[in-house]
Design a protein that fits this description.
314 residues, 7-stranded mixed beta sheet, 4-stranded antiparallel beta sheet, 11 strands, globular, Methyltransferase type 11
Length: 314
């Protein structure tokens, strides 16, 4: 077992064991442990890359097609992404840096497409060739297949860099943050979002919390863990946001009823008729709406199930 990412301590205690509740890629049990010094949660042991890749199913991102259902889903995703777009737009407008915005883990590129529509120069980065191709074709977003440390970008060339739900998947988040700092202009902006392990949802649901996403999440960060890692990597934290219309209510819904999650059903290729699919989709949407008051309440107390942080290089 390696030392703690945040404090360097070597002592850990097991919190719970869990398996892949959402996508059912494996029946294997995994342990989540807590640092006895600072409280950071992580998967232990962390699967090697060749094993971990097996737990990422095909179509792990949203890939729209021409069907009516797909167009409706894209319209919904555009609606719930607006607060992401607004947060990042404010960050970029408050900066004196000039250059494009890079989204690491861009997937199908919908977020960047919405930023491009607002007049920002954008570029995406993803490990998946298929996802990058979708970003190009559907959103007219230039997307590169590479990881951050090998991105074909000049040091100091970016006005902004975003990582939404990326850090928790990385073996060494600090290396990515160091690479991000090198790519950003002196007054550039970094926006990072992760599930918040200090949220009410995480505390109440434990191993059933969707934000843990065993075994794909190698770390379960609290907001204060992320702040410490950012500061250690040479960033100054400027803002925090604890509510995401896209993530927080839906995360609670998927925790309570993972079998209704639309993407999980699609990924698992659940056999269902058109009427069955409609009933399940409506039931899931109703659960998302019912989850809104709780998600808003926990966010009001800075205990939302996600945290989004704006930072700049020191």
């Amino acid at each position: 077992m390696s030392d703690c990412l945040v404090c360097g301590n070597a002592g850990f205690t097991t919190v719970f064991q869990g398996s892949d509740r959402l996508y059912h890629t494996t029946g294997k049990q995994f342990s989540v442990v807590r640092c006895v010094e600072c409280g950071l949660l992580r998967l232990d042991p962390q699967p090697p890359p060749e094993e971990l890749s097996q737990y990422y199913p095909d179509n792990y991102w949203f890939a729209p097609d021409q069907s009516t259902a797909s167009r409706m889903e894209e319209a919904y995703r555009r609606l719930v992404l607006r607060d992401h777009v607004q947060f990042v737009s404010q960050a970029l407008k408050s900066s004196t840096a000039r250059g494009p915005l890079l989204d690491i883990g861009c997937g199908g590129g919908l977020f960047l497409g919405m930023m491009r529509e607002r007049g920002f120069r954008v570029v995406g980065l993803d490990n998946s060739r298929e996802a990058a191709g979708i970003a190009w074709r559907r959103q007219q977003v230039p997307a590169v297949v590479a990881d951050t440390e090998r991105a074909p970008l000049r040091a100091g060339s970016l006005a902004g860099l975003t990582m939404f739900h990326v850090m928790e998947h990385l073996y060494d988040p600090r290396a990515y943050l160091r690479a991000a700092r090198e790519l950003l202009a002196p007054d550039g902006r970094l926006v990072v979002q992760v599930p918040n392990a200090a949220s009410w949802q995480a505390r109440l649901l434990g191993s059933a919390w969707n934000g843990a996403d065993v075994p794909r999440h190698l770390y379960d960060f609290r907001d204060r863990d992320l702040v410490k890692i950012l500061e250690a990597a040479g960033f100054e934290v400027l803002r925090r946001k604890y509510f995401s219309l896209r993530d927080n209510p839906a995360g609670l819904a998927s925790s309570l009823a993972p079998s209704l999650d639309p993407m999980a059903r699609r990924v698992r290729r659940v056999a269902e008729s058109g009427s069955e699919r409609l009933v399940k989709d409506l039931a899931y949407f109703a659960l998302v709406v019912a989850s809104l008051p709780f998600a808003a309440a926990e966010a009001a107390f800075h205990a939302g199930s996600t945290v989004m942080i704006e930072a700049r290089p020191r």
